[in-house]
Design a protein that fits this description.
Rossmann fold, 886 residues, PCRA, domain 4, six-stranded mixed sheet, alpha/beta
C-alpha cells in the first residue's frame, strides 16, 4: 500500500529534508486512521535506513481535540431530548413518529452548524456571525418547516456549548496558536465548517495538499466516462475509450455478479473470498452496502472457520443481548404472551443465579402448565395456576412480577428515571451480570449508563411507550464493535475504504436501492435543505461516486454483487452498474458479468451417497388405525414417532381451529344420539331444537375464551338440517344407532409366534339389515372424503376398523358440506379387512427381517409432517434408492 503515498512522502520530504531526523513539528491531516501506517511506511521507504521522528498524522476532530474547550460540549442525547420536547408541542407533526423526526431534526441542526458557523480568527465575533446568518436567511422566503428549523437553530445558538459550537471554537483556537507546517492528505467528505477552516489555513499557515496516486489509474477514465458522462452519447464515449485504450482496463479485474437471491449472493461472495485466500491474498475488503447480505456472508464464512474483522460495527438492535430488552418490553405490552415469556425464560441472559438443572426443570414444568391450561396471556393467572401445578417455577414468576410492577407503578418518568427502573428490573431478573459478561452486552450497558449520566438533568416526563420509542432509537443508532477479531478480511463501508490498497474487494448490495445511496428522511427533504443552504442528495451521491471510483482503482480484483430478486419482487441493479456494463460492451464487445455459485438458495450441495435408512428396533405391542396409517404413509415418520419416541409438543390453543371444531361436533352428536337413540319417536322440529340446544351447551365454554368459537358454532348450526335429514333417512332404511365412542381391540398373529394388539375408539356403531356398521364422523367435504377412499390401500382407517370389529359396513360421514352423506369403501368391507390383515402381517414380517424405514411419503403427507426437518428428504438426497429398497 506504500505506493499510494510514495509521491506524498516524497513531496513532504522535499520541503523538510533539512529538518531530519525530527519531523514531529509537521502536522498532516488525514481522512481516517487507516492512512497512518501506509503513509509512515512510504516515508520509511523514501528515507531508507534513516531513523526519524514522524510527523503528527491527525484527523480534523483529533486536531481540534488537542485544544480542550473551556466549556464541556452538550451531549447529543441532551440536544435530542430537547428537540423532542420542542416537536411534541407542534400539533401538525405525526406524534407516533416524533422520536425519528427529532433525530432527523437534530442531525439537520448539526448540519446547519456546519453550514453557518465559520471559525473566525477571534471567536468573540461568533454571536455577530449568528445574527448575520439569521438576517440573511430570515430575509429570504422560507416555508413553514424551513422557518421552524432555522428559528430552532438560532435559539440553540444561545447556548455556549451546543451542537458544533465547541468544535468550531477549538478549530478557531488551533488557528490562533498554529506554528508548524500543515499538510492535508486525501481529505474527503468534509463538512462546510471544515472546508472553511481549511480555507482559513491556506491563508494563514500555508496548508499544502499532498499528492495521492492509485495503483490502477488506467481504470479511472472508463469509470468516469460511465458515471460522469458529459455531453457525449454513450456510443461516442465507448468509441473514444476503445481508440485511446484498445485493451479493456477492467477485463478480468472488475466483475459484476447478479445473484438470484440473498443466499446465492452470500455464497458467491464467500466462494470468491475463499478463492482469494487460497491464492495468498491477505488484504480483502467487504464493503457492506446491504447489511443483511453482509450478515449472511459472515455466517457462511464462519461455517468454514473464516472470520471477518468488522470495522463498521453492528447496531445494538441486531445483537442477541438486545433481544432480552425487546422481549421484556413486549411482555409488558402484551400482558406476558406465553410464547414471548417462554422465549425470555430460555434466554441465557436471565436467571443466571439459579442452578441450571433447577431452572430447566422449572421451565419444563411451566411449559407443560401453559400448554395444558391454554394460558395465552396473563402473568397473574399463570402465577395462580403455578402455585398448585408448577411450584418450581414460582421463584422465577415472582421475580418477573416484581420487575413488571416497577414499570406498571411508574406511569410517567424522565428518560433517566426509566433507565433507573430498567437497571433495577434487570437486577430482579438476574440479567445484569450475564449481560455485562457478553462483549456486546458490556458495550450496551456502557451506552445505557452513559445516557443515564448525560440525561440526569432532563426533567421531561414520558409514558413508557414513548420512552421505549426513545430506547429503540438509541439501539438502532448506536453500534457495538467486535474488537477481539484479527482477520485479513475487513468488513467496512465505502467511505472508510478510500485511500486503502486492498488486494481484493467485494461490494455487497450494488442494487438500485443501495447504490447510489438512498435519500434520508422524507420529513426534512431536499427542498427544505435547499432553502436552508444545505447540501442535498446530489452531493451525497457525488461523494459516494468518488469513493466507488477510488476503491475500484485500488484493488487488484473487484467484485460488485447484488441480488436480482427480493422474495417475489424483482430487484434492479444500480443504474451505475447498468451504465458501466453497457459502456464496456460497446467499447470492447465483452460483458463484465461473473458467474454466481450454482447451488439452490438455502440448500446444501446435492448428496451423492445413498441414505442408510433405519430399521425398527422393536415391534409395537399395540397398534391403532392412526399408527398403521403413519407407517403406510411414510415409514420413517412411524420410526421417528414410535421407535425414537418423538412427537409434537403440546401447544397452547390461542384460537379455536378446525380440529377443535371437529371434536366439539363429535361431542354434540354423541350427546344428541344418546338422548335420542330412535329419532322417529320425536318430531323433527323438536329434534332440531334439541340439537341446537346441545350445540350451544357444548360450544359455550369455548365461546367464553375464543373469539372465533361463535363462528364455528354458526357454521355447524348451518349443517344441522342437512345432518338430521341424513340421519332420519338412514334410520328409515333400517339402520339404528347403537353406541358412540366404543373401544375395540383384537390380537393379530405375526410370524415367529409374535402378535400385536390392534385397538381403536370408534365414533359410532349402527345396527342394520346387514349387521354391524362402523361410522366415522369427518368435518370435511363430501368430495374430499370420496378422494380419500378413491384408491384402495391409501387410507387404511375403514379396513382397519373392519378388521377390528368384524362389521359388515364402514363409512365416513361428511359433516362439513351442504349435503351430509355417507361415503363407503369401493369394495366389500370383509374383503378389504382381510387384505389389510395380510398387509399388516407381511409388513411386520419384513420389519422383523430388518427392512428399512425410508422417508418416502407423498408431498401431501410431507406438507403436514411433524418430522419434516428430521428426515432431510427436502434437502435433495441422492436419487438412488436406499439399500433394501423402499
Amino acid at each position: 500500500m506504500a505506493q499510494t503515498f510514495q509521491a506524498a512522502a516524497a513531496a513532504l520530504l522535499s520541503d523538510h529534508r533539512d529538518h531530519l531526523p525530527d519531523l514531529s513539528a509537521i502536522t498532516v491531516l488525514v481522512p481516517h486512521h487507516h492512512v497512518r501506517v501506509p503513509f509512515l511506511a512510504a516515508l520509511s521507504l523514501e528515507l531508507g535506513d534513516t531513523v526519524f521522528l514522524p510527523p503528527q498524522l491527525m484527523t480534523l476532530p483529533a486536531l481540534a481535540a488537542t485544544l480542550r474547550d473551556a466549556a464541556e460540549p452538550e451531549p447529543d442525547s441532551q440536544r435530542l431530548a430537547s428537540v423532542y420536547g420542542f416537536l411534541s408541542r407542534i400539533d401538525w407533526l405525526d406524534e407516533a413518529a416524533l422520536w425519528p423526526q427529532a433525530q432527523a431534526l437534530h442531525e439537520l441542526l448539526l448540519e446547519l452548524d456546519d453550514a453557518l458557523l465559520a471559525p473566525p480568527d477571534q471567536y468573540a465575533g461568533f454571536a455577530a456571525q449568528v445574527e448575520q446568518a439569521a438576517r440573511r436567511k430570515l430575509a429570504a422566503p422560507l416555508d413553514r418547516e424551513a422557518r421552524m428549523v432555522f428559528e430552532l437553530w438560532r435559539a440553540y445558538q444561545q447556548s455556549e456549548n451546543g451542537g458544533r459550537k465547541a468544535y468550531a471554537r477549538q478549530l478557531a483556537r488551533w488557528l490562533a496558536t498554529a506554528s508548524g507546517p500543515l499538510y492535508s492528505l486525501g481529505l474527503h467528505g468534509l463538512s462546510q465548517l471544515e472546508q472553511r477552516f481549511l480555507a482559513h489555513c491556506r491563508g494563514s499557515v500555508g496548508l499544502r495538499e499532498l499528492p495521492v496516486s492509485a495503483p490502477y489509474p488506467e481504470r479511472q477514465p472508463m469509470l468516469w466516462a460511465a458515471w460522469r458522462p458529459g455531453d457525449d452519447s454513450l456510443p461516442a464515449r465507448a468509441a473514444k475509450l476503445a481508440a485511446a485504450t484498445p485493451e479493456s482496463p477492467l477485463a478480468g479485474q472488475l466483475a459484476i455478479l447478479a445473484a438470484t437471491d440473498m443466499e446465492m449472493a452470500a455464497r458467491s461472495a464467500a466462494d470468491a473470498i475463499k478463492r482469494w485466500l487460497a491464492e495468498g491474498r491477505r488484504a480483502i475488503a467487504v464493503i457492506a452496502l446491504d447489511r443483511l447480505v453482509a450478515r449472511r456472508l459472515r455466517a457462511v464464512l464462519e461455517r468454514d472457520a473464516i472470520l471477518m474483522q468488522d470495522e463498521t460495527g453492528w447496531t445494538f438492535s441486531t445483537a442477541s443481548v438486545s433481544h432480552v430488552l425487546d422481549r421484556w418490553f413486549t411482555l409488558l405490552q402484551d400482558d406476558f404472551y406465553h410464547r414471548d415469556l417462554l422465549d425470555l425464560l430460555k434466554s441465557p441472559f436471565v436467571f443466571g443465579d439459579l442452578a441450571a438443572d433447577h431452572r430447566l426443570a422449572a421451565l419444563a414444568e411451566l411449559e407443560r402448565l401453559i400448554a395444558h391450561r391454554d394460558v395465552v396471556t396473563g402473568l397473574s393467572r399463570l402465577i395462580v395456576l403455578a402455585q398448585v401445578e408448577a411450584t418450581s417455577a414460582m421463584p422465577m414468576l415472582a421475580r418477573l412480577a416484581k420487575a413488571a410492577n416497577r414499570f406498571r407503578d411508574a406511569h410517567r418518568q424522565t428518560l433517566s428515571g426509566w433507565l433507573e427502573i430498567l437497571f433495577a428490573a434487570l437486577d430482579d431478573l438476574a440479567a445484569s451480570a450475564a449481560i455485562e459478561a457478553d462483549p456486546a452486552g458490556r458495550q450496551l450497558m456502557e451506552l445505557l449508563h452513559r445516557l443515564h449520566r448525560e440525561l440526569i438533568a432532563d426533567r421531561t416526563r414520558l409514558p413508557l411507550a414513548k420512552w421505549r420509542g426513545w430506547l429503540n432509537l438509541q439501539l438502532d443508532q448506536a453500534t457495538f464493535q467486535e474488537n477481539e477479531i484479527d482477520s485479513p478480511i475487513r468488513l467496512t463501508h465505502l467511505a472508510a475504504a478510500r485511500l486503502r490498497d486492498f488486494e481484493a474487494v467485494v461490494i455487497l448490495g450494488a442494487d438500485a436501492g443501495h447504490l447510489p445511496p438512498a435519500a434520508p428522511s422524507a420529513v426534512f427533504n431536499d427542498a427544505l435543505r435547499r432553502q436552508l443552504g444545505l447540501p442535498g442528495q446530489a452531493q451525497r451521491q457525488g461523494e459516494a461516486l468518488e469513493a466507488l471510483i477510488d476503491v475500484s482503482s485500488r484493488a487488484d480484483s473487484v467484485l460488485l454483487c447484488w441480488q436480482a430478486r427480493r422474495g417475489k419482487e424483482a430487484n434492479p441493479p444500480s443504474p451505475w452498474l447498468s451504465l458501466l456494463t453497457t459502456l464496456h460492451k460497446l467499447a470492447y464487445g465483452a460483458d463484465l458479468a461473473a458467474a454466481a455459485t450454482q447451488t439452490a438458495a438455502g440448500q446444501p450441495a446435492r448428496r451423492t451417497e445413498a441414505v442408510a435408512w433405519p430399521g425398527l428396533s422393536r415391534l409395537p405391542e399395540r397398534l391403532s388405525a392412526s399408527g398403521w396409517q403413519r407407517l403406510v404413509s411414510c415409514p420413517y415418520r412411524y420410526f421417528a414417532h414410535y421407535d425414537l419416541g418423538l412427537g409434537e409438543a403440546e401447544e397452547v390453543a390461542e384460537e379455536m381451529a378446525k380440529a377443535d371444531y371437529g371434536e366439539l361436533v363429535h361431542a354434540i352428536l354423541n350427546r344428541f344420539h344418546s338422548r335420542h337413540p330412535l329419532l322417529a319417536e320425536t318430531p323433527r322440529a323438536q329434534l332440531e331444537a334439541d340439537l341446537e340446544l346441545i350445540s350451544h351447551q357444548i360450544f359455550s365454554p369455548r365461546e367464553a375464551v375464543y373469539y372465533l368459537a361463535q363462528g364455528w358454532r354458526l357454521r355447524w348450526q348451518g349443517r344441522i338440517p342437512a345432518y338430521l335429514g341424513w340421519a332420519l333417512a338412514r334410520e328409515a332404511a333400517g339402520w339404528r344407532w347403537q353406541a358412540a365412542e366404543r373401544e375395540f381391540s383384537r390380537e393379530l398373529a405375526l410370524p415367529e409366534g409374535r402378535q400385536v394388539s390392534l385397538y381403536g375408539r370408534l365414533d359410532r356403531l349402527d345396527e342394520g339389515p346387514d349387521g354391524l356398521a362402523v361410522i366415522d364422523y369427518k368435518a370435511q367435504s363430501l368430495q374430499k372424503l370420496k378422494g380419500k377412499l378413491k384408491t384402495p390401500g391409501e387410507d387404511v382407517q375403514l379396513p382397519f376398523y373392519g378388521l377390528l370389529t368384524g362389521a359388515a359396513q364402514a363409512g365416513l360421514v361428511a359433516l362439513d358440506d351442504d349435503k351430509v352423506d355417507l361415503v363407503l369403501l369401493g369394495q366389500p368391507l370383509a374383503e378389504a379387512a382381510k387384505a389389510e390383515a395380510g398387509r399388516l402381517r407381511d409388513t411386520f414380517a419384513a420389519l422383523l427381517d430388518g427392512a428399512p424405514l425410508p422417508a418416502n411419503g407423498a408431498s401431501e403427507t410431507c406438507a403436514w409432517c411433524e418430522m419434516a426437518g428430521l428426515c432431510r428428504k427436502a434437502h435433495d438426497f441422492a436419487a438412488a434408492a436406499p439399500a433394501g429398497g423402499e
